[in-house]
Amino acid sequence: MHYDWPGNVRELRNALERAAILCEGGLITAEHLSLDIGARGPRAPVGASTTDLSAVERDMIAQVLADCAGNKSKAAARLGISRTQLYVRLRRYQLS
Known about the structure:
The structure is a single chain. The chain is mostly helical and about 100 residues long. It has helices at about 10-20, 35-40, 55-65, 70-80, 85-90, and strands spanning about 25-30, 50. The longest helix is centred in the middle third of the chain and has 15 residues, at about 55-65.
């Protein structure tokens, strides 16, 4: 929350999509975002640099699916996951 993002909104969205894919533990941390905290200023308080992965992932999948007009093959490719992985997430977040 205290990080001065150097790019535009599209770059931020891409960074969040990449972090959601890389994150295995349920939380996106500064390491998943490849943030150079030391060069940008003080580290945020514990908990402030993490985001609830479930909410981010669900919103991202819903947005990409809408952008792809419901085409699951295109949405999976855009998310960088297989169609099988997309279907698992659609069931998990009750988006299907």
